[in-house]
Each structure stands twice: as C-alpha cells, then as structure tokens.
C-alpha cells in the first residue's frame, strides 16, 4: 500500500498487505472505498473482493474520527429527541475507529490440536463413542486469520463534568476517555498485523 505521487489515491504495492496470491495471472477484483470524517480521509481496502472467505483481507488505511457534535446535529436534523445530559456529552465527545483489519483463514486442526478440541467439547460429545469423537475432531476447523479492531472515545470536557454540569466535581475527578480493542492473532498472523500497524503510522 502506498500513496501515488501527487494524489491521495491508494495504490497496491508489495509486502504482505498485497498478498502474493494476487500475482497468479488470474483476474482479481479489488475495491477501495473512500471514507471521510472530521476532514480526514481514509480508505476501506478490499484488495481481492472475490476471495475474502479464502483469507484475503479487509482493512482501513487511516483512523476515522466522528465528532460527537456532528452526530448531535445530525440527530437534531432528524428530530431525534435526546436528554440534555446526552446532548452535553455528545457535544464534547469524539469517537474514532483507530484500526480495523480482518482476514479469514480456516484450516483443519493439526493432530495435536484434536485431543484438546475433544477435551474442550467434552460435554457435547459425551454421548459419542471414540470413533465419532475422532471424526468430529478431524472435521473441526480453526480460523488462523488476523483480526484487529480498535475504538477510542475522548471526552473533551470529561464524562462526569459533561453529564452533571458540575465543574467542581469534574475538577475533582473525571473520565477523559475510553478505549476498546478486539484482537485475534496467532503467531502466523503477527507479521501482517505489524505491517498493518506501520501502514497506520504513515503520514
């Protein structure tokens, strides 16, 4: 992934984010969807849209931030009523999706993993004989694909201060933000997520 000189359009380049499987002489369909929020632009990238279920990734190229005041204005324009406390909170809040990377890569369990799978599913397999348990374990799959999702909320005036409008309480103790991270990463996925993190850090 790189920026073409003189433009802001995403261009596929070498590396793990542009899978080697794309260079096989076959026709692949890729999509880049421009997303703009708070004056900044990101892209939702789907390098190989026809093979997402076979392990090809979907990811954003830059964090996307929504200002709460814009959300509040939108809700007002749609005549959505909100308590004053919620309005006050939205007007001092920003919500950002800092990272989103998803790939699916299912595989059958290795021999050593089948025993543990049977142990983990002992309750549902208790009526099966040994041969049936082995058959089900041999058919079971695990997803080796990488998944990373990160969200951040920032409360510019503090959560407690915005909700209560009590400045003294807000000065005493307040909540200024919260973060959420969902991660699935096996050792085989570590390199791709490191490369993705480097992409997010590029200006």
Overview of the structural elements:
The structure is a single chain. The chain is 32% helix and 29% strand. It is of the alpha+beta class and 203 residues long. The protein folds into two domains: 2-105 and 144-201, no CATH class; 108-142, no CATH class. Strand 1 (2-3) and strand 2 form a beta hairpin. It is extended. The chain starts with a strand and ends with a helix. 17% of the residues are buried.
Q: Level of helix content?
A: 25-40%
Distance between the termini: 13 Å
Global Rg: 23 Å
Strand percentage lies at: 25-35%
Shape: extended
Output the number of helix runs. Answer: 8
Question: What's the helix-strand series?
Answer: EEEEEEHHEEHHHEEHHEH
| Major sheet description | 7 strands, antiparallel
Number of spatially distinct domains:
2
The averaged pLDDT comes out at 82
Structural class: alpha+beta
Give the strand tally. Answer: 11
Provide the low-confidence segments as ranges. 1-9
Q: What labels would you give this structure?
A:
203 residues, alpha+beta, 2 domains, seven-stranded antiparallel sheet, two-stranded antiparallel sheet, 8 helices, disordered N terminus
Give a short synopsis of this structure.
With 203 residues, this protein is of the alpha+beta class. 32% of the residues lie in helices and 29% in strands. It has 2 domains: 2-105 and 144-201, no CATH class; 108-142, no CATH class.
Any chance you could write out the topology, listing elements then pairs?
Elements: E1 2-3, E2 10-11, E3 31-37, E4 40-46, E5 58-60, E6 64-67, H1 68-77, H2 84-90, E7 93-102, E8 106-108, H3 111-120, H4 122-125, H5 130-139, E9 141-143, E10 147-155, H6 159-164, H7 167-172, E11 177-184, H8 190-201
Antiparallel strand pairs: 1-2, 3-4, 4-5, 5-7, 6-7, 7-10, 8-9, 10-11
């Amino acid at each position: 992934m790189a920026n073409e000189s003189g433009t802001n359009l995403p261009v596929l380049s070498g590396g793990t984010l542009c899978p080697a499987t794309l260079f096989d002489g076959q026709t692949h369909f890729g999509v880049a969807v421009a997303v703009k929020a708070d004056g900044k632009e990101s892209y939702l990238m789907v390098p190989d849209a026809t093979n997402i279920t076979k392990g090809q990734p979907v990811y954003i190229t830059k964090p996307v931030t929504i200002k709460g005041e814009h959300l509040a204005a939108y809700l007002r324009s749609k005549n959505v009523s909100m308590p004053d406390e919620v309005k006050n909170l939205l007007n001092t809040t920003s919500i950002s999706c800092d990272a989103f990377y998803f790939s699916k890569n299912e595989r059958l369990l290795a021999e050593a993993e089948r025993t543990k799978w049977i142990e983990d599913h002992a309750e549902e397999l208790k009526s099966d004989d040994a041969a049936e348990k082995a058959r089900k374990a041999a058919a079971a799959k695990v997803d080796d694909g990488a998944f990373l999702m990160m969200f951040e909320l920032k409360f510019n005036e503090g959560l407690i201060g915005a909700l209560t409008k009590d400045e003294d309480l807000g000065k005493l103790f307040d909540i200024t933000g919260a973060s959420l991270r969902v991660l699935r990463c096996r050792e085989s996925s570590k390199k791709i997520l490191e490369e993705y993190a480097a992409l997010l850090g590029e200006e």
